[in-house]
Amino acid sequence: MTLAFIRHGQTDWNRDGLLQGSSDIHLNDTGRQQAREAEGMLTQWTWDAIVSSPLARARETARIVAEDLGLQLGPAYPELAERDYGPLEGTPSAEAIERWPDRAYPGAESLDDVVARGLRGLARIDADYPGRNVVVVCHGTIMKYTLIRLTGYPVEVVLNGAVSTMERDGDGWRVLTVNGEPVA
Fold first, then answer.
1. Residue 146 CA to chain centroid, in angstroms?
2. Is 139 known to be catalytic?
3. Which of 41, 57, 142, 171 would be 180's cystine partner, CB 3.0–4.6 Å?
């Protein structure tokens, strides 16, 4: 089984450096173009399904990629939604990171809870598509920390519209690409 994670395309809040989290912000024109370009990072595999987070920016990205791959858009998994940043949503992310460098933001969902939710979502995808190659469109924080937990690979940042892939390796996972770049 190979999984390709695509971070949704850019939104105005991404462009402006604001924390989005569970706020349901739509793609902007740049984000739609990034979604169209993502297909080019997927061409070395054959894909069986495409699924996503239920948030509008992920669903629209998934719809565009599905059309480009000739796939029917699959289900949305609530477990794949972005981290809930609570009262900090809509505030400048740089200020939040400067004030709380450990990312333990007050009123936000904990990173451990985000990863546990991400793992539950992947277990559901695995049960729904056993042994199949699946494109998963979701969000930066849940992707980054879930990939790190699954693979131990140090992911610094997940770019909008970029593809990160991993394949099952026995009982674990092996990272193949991060942000569209092959991993040695």
1. 9
2. no
3. 41
The C-alpha atoms of residue 71 and residue 99 are separated, in whole angstroms, by: 43
Among 8, 39, 79, 139, the active-site one is 8
Measured CA to CA in angstroms, residue 181 lies from 31, 122, 175 at distances of 19, 22, 11
In order along its 184 residues, the chain shows pLDDT tens digits of 999 999 999 999 999 999 999 999 999 999 999 999 998 899 889 999 999 999 999 999 999 999 999 999 999 999 999 999 999 999 999 999 999 999 999 999 999 999 999 999 999 999 999 999 999 999 999 999 998 998 888 889 999 999 999 998 888 888 899 998 888 7
pTM of the model: 0.93
135-156 burial, b if ≥16 CB within 10 A, otherwise e?
bbbbbbbbbbbbbebbbeeebe
**51 close to 59: Cβ distance less than 8 angstroms:** no
Catalytic residue among 60, 82, 89, 109: 82
Pairwise CA distance, residues 10 & 17, whole Å: 11
Instruction: Tell me, yes or no, if 8 is annotated catalytic.
Output: yes
For residue 90, give both structure tokens. Answer: 């809509």
What are the CB-based long-range contacts (under 8 Å, 24+) for 28-32? 31/57, 31/60, 31/61, 31/160, 31/161, 32/60, 32/64
